[in-house]
Specification:
Helix 14 runs antiparallel to helix 18 and helix 15 packs parallel to helix 18. Strand 5 and strand 6 form a beta hairpin. The radius of gyration is 53 Å and the shape is rod-shaped. By secondary structure, it is mainly α. 62% of the residues lie in helices and 4% in strands. Among the domains are: 129 residues, no CATH class; 174 residues, Orthogonal Bundle (Arp2/3 complex 21 kDa subunit ARPC3); 222 residues, Hypothetical protein af1432 (Orthogonal Bundle), CATH 1.10.3210. The strands form four sheets. A four-stranded mixed sheet has the order 6-5-3-8. A two-stranded antiparallel sheet has the order 1-10. It has 31 helices and ten strands.
Length: 785
């Protein structure tokens, strides 16, 4: 015992060192095998990627608008193309909402007024100098020669006043401030806000767009509600004449002269700001997104004989771009990275949550193969659906999505449940649902695949016969119908399309049944290729009419009966600790088939003959007993027994000691003063590697030992089971099995319950003494036919 504890401590220390020293772990790994796994994973990802990528091998001619198409061209994948007409309409609508900018220039008003004031001021200065030189009294008119001379001088200084009689009228009134003020008021009134424009043609051109008047000094912008308020030169001059009554300093013909003089002083002060308007138009257009036209896969872009329109030409040009090597390589690389991520996540799941399972690589390859098969079948159905939808004349059924629901998207999940287990099937369902979405370009197919797979997990969580797969197909079909209805209700806008619903309903039901049918077809092949044992295979092996079990019943009846009872014990214990009861029952049926080689050497079969071991040495007897393990493995290989069941044959004995012959050898050795090697009297092993193997070992011992009880009361049965359990634990037989003491206690209670029921007491039959030996002669009064 001390040596065993010492060995365990040494193993734990070595294990801790390996976990601590990462470099040693890396060096301890087989590098070439790691590289092989990486390359295999990348190869699997590439295959899946090629299945998800849509290829179009049809060439696209170089058509021009107006040409007649010589072939029918369909969209191989979903893609988008810019709708030029709709985009242009959207741009024009946006332009119509951008206001036109006009500058209202106050500088012109100030400049004109300043020039007029300067002219009057200069004229009054010259007049004042002349009167000063002549020393004229205020109110005394200038002499005619002086006036003519002054007029000539003013013509040179003020050329704009030299037209007509303007200078005469102004001199007549001595360029008075009153005249100046009234002229400026008339001029300001004619050029007031919203101003004067040279030509109203621009206003007419943009009359349907908003007009903003911008003050070029303050940069304040005002939106004009009425663009007609802006006057042109003619309107401004008309306003001047309408207001001529305000000119009171002069009258008669002099007023007309001065009004005509002011006509030339009115100038445009509103100008079109082309640069700022263009800048704001560009900013508005930059915010306009192009209108995209969604083209679904399978849609007929052009039929043979149709005319090439601009819209069709745009779609064909976009298809050409999609066929370019760069675009195709980009799509392949993108999908490849996504697939690599998901397969790496699956491998991490194996590494973290199933790290003690030696079948990880085999299960990973199985998952990849099932994924490939499922995608191939789905792609075939989807390709057929595209053809069918494109050939139908009824518009309601031209959506290929209606026929996508026929795809057996739950096939892979059903296979993984049956071959590996529910936990991995959930992860498979998630990954496959994403891949189906990538394959079809429809998020609804992702939902459809995932919900159907969850229905498969529910339907196949427990099954006891092959017909359960068909029932699961019906359950999946029902779930698919509900999901199809939900998706159609979600996507329907106005009218519920009954024809599409009936197609979807039929497809959903066929999908479940088709998946069940393919599962029944593929399951045996995958079991054989990967060496896996499913519960359905175990059900087949549990048939007591199997040839090997019939041989056992005839040639070794004691062993056969022992196996049946062990199966009952083990199955009850498995149900108590959440182990696999079916595997344990089948394992119990076959655990002693090696005894068929020499059944007469085992005490349970020595009914009408003596014990042959009495004439053999203990060592020879132990060899014969141990040989039934080797013979059982050979026979299991011969009948192609499932691996899980075959592994229970050597593990149900482990490395236990054959106590009877060991003690007999020790007694013989004591008499001869020799030593006995304990290892020669132990079974070859290995020790139980699983919970099921540990339960089977204990059930085998308990059933055999219970037969030795003379009066099997519940207390005696409980004591026997406890002693066998503690003895086996002390012998270290459960060190490598994932079973806990709590579970062993539950196993003990299950054994006690079954054995107590088997060895229950009965009342004696009145009138019968079963202990009395029956006489050899028959009653004379009874005839036996």
């Amino acid at each position: 015992m001390a040596e065993r504890s010492k060995g365990k401590s040494s193993r734990r220390s070595n294990l801790a060192k390996r976990f601590i020293d990462l470099q040693k772990i890396r060096k301890g790994l087989p590098i070439h095998l790691t590289y092989q796994r990486v390359l295999a994973g990348l190869g699997i990802a590439l295959v899946i990627t090629l299945l998800l990528i849509q290829f179009q091998f049809q060439s696209i001619p170089d058509y021009q608008v107006g040409d007649i198409a010589d072939r029918t061209i369909e969209a191989p994948i979903d893609f988008t193309v810019i709708d030029e007409d709709a985009t242009q309409a959207k741009l024009e609508q946006m332009l119509a909402e951008v206001p036109i900018i006009f500058d209202f220039d106050f500088k012109f008003n100030n400049q004109v007024i300043g020039e007029l004031r300067s002219a009057f001021g200069e004229a009054r200065r010259l007049i004042h100098e002349e009167r000063k030189q002549l020393e004229l009294e205020p109110g005394t008119p200038l002499p005619l020669p002086v006036r003519e001379q002054l007029k000539k001088q003013l013509s040179d200084v003020l050329p704009r006043f030299s037209q007509g009689r303007v200078l005469d009228v102004a001199l007549k009134h001595h360029f008075s401030p009153e005249l100046e003020t009234q002229l400026i008021q008339l001029l300001v009134e004619s050029m007031k806000y919203p101003g004067v424009i040279l030509n109203r043609d621009l206003l007419l051109r943009y009359q349907n767009r908003a007009i903003v008047l911008r003050n070029n000094i303050t940069e304040q912008e005002d939106l004009l509600s009425d663009w007609t308020a802006i006057r042109d030169l003619g309107q401004a001059r008309d306003m001047l004449r309408q207001n001529e009554y305000e000119l009171t300093v002069v009258s008669g013909e002099d007023k007309k002269v001065m009004i005509g003089f002011l006509d030339n002083w009115i100038v445009p002060n509103v100008h079109f700001n082309r640069e700022l308007t263009r800048e704001r138009e560009q900013m508005a257009l930059a915010e306009v997104d192009p209108v995209l036209l969604q083209v679904k896969r399978g849609k007929t872009i052009v039929r043979a004989g149709d005319e090439i329109t601009p819209t069709r030409l745009d779609q064909l040009e976009e298809l050409k771009k999609l066929k370019r090597p760069g675009r195709l390589a980009g799509r392949i690389a993108g999908v490849f990275l996504i697939v690599c991520f998901f397969f790496f996540a699956v491998w991490q799941y194996f590494s973290v949550h199933r790290q003690e399972d030696e079948n990880n690589v085999r299960h990973y390859l199985l998952l990849a193969l099932v994924m490939t098969i499922s995608l191939v079948l789905a792609k075939m159905v989807i390709a057929l659906a595209d053809v069918v939808a494109g050939s139908l004349a009824l518009p309601a059924l031209q959506n290929p999505l209606h026929f996508y629901l026929f795809a057996p998207v739950t096939l892979g999940t059903m296979l993984i449940i049956l071959l590996v287990g529910v936990d991995l099937s959930i992860l498979f369902s998630l990954v496959f649902a994403v891949f189906v979405g990538l394959l079809t370009g429809q998020i609804s197919m992702t939902v459809y695949s995932l919900t159907g797979s969850l229905g498969a997990i529910y339907a196949l969580e427990q099954y006891r016969e092959r017909s359960a797969i068909v029932r699961a197909g019906l359950v999946i079909g029902a779930v698919n119908i509900l999901v199809a209805l939900a998706l159609q209700l979600y996507s329907s806008e106005i009218v519920f399309q009954w024809s599409a619903f009936f197609v979807r309903t039929g497809g959903a039901l066929v999908s479940g049944l088709f998946a069940a049918m393919m599962t029944v077809l593929l399951l045996p092949m995958l079991e054989t290729v990967f060496g896996l044992t499913t519960d359905i295979r175990l059900l087949e092996l549990s048939n007591l009419n199997n040839p090997i079990l019939r041989r056992l019943a005839v040639e070794a009846p004691g062993t056969y009966h022992h196996s049946i009872i062990v199966g009952t014990l083990a199955e009850a214990a498995a149900e108590a600790v959440s182990a696999n009861p079916l595997l344990l029952r089948v394992g119990a049926y076959y655990h002693d088939i090696g005894k068929l080689r020499h059944p007469e050497y085992y005490i349970e079969n020595q009914i009408y003959c003596g014990n042959k071991h009495e004439s053999l040495s203990p060592t020879m007897s132990s060899l014969i007993l141990a040989s039934h393990v080797k013979d059982g493995l050979a026979l299991a290989e011969e009948i192609n027994l499932s691996p899980k069941v075959r592994d229970l044959i050597p593990q149900h004995h482990g490395t236990r000691l054959m106590t009877y012959f060991y003690q007999k050898a020790k007694e013989a050795a004591d008499n001869k003063n020799g030593e006995v090697n304990e290892a020669e009297f132990r079974y070859p092993g290995p020790k139980p590697q699983s919970k099921e193997a540990a339960i089977l070992m204990l059930a085998d011992q308990v059933e055999a030992a219970a037969r030795t009880l003379q009066d099997p009361t519940p207390a005696q049965i409980r004591s026997l089971i406890k002693r066998l359990l503690y003895s086996t634990i002390q012998d270290g037989q459960f060190d490598e099995a994932d079973i806990t003491m709590r579970e062993l206690e539950q196993v003990t209670l299950a054994f006690e319950r079954v054995l107590t029921g088997m060895y229950h007491h009965r009342i004696q039959y009145p009138g019968f003494d079963f202990s009395k030996q029956v006489e050899g002669r028959r009653p004379e009064s009874q005839r036996i036919q």
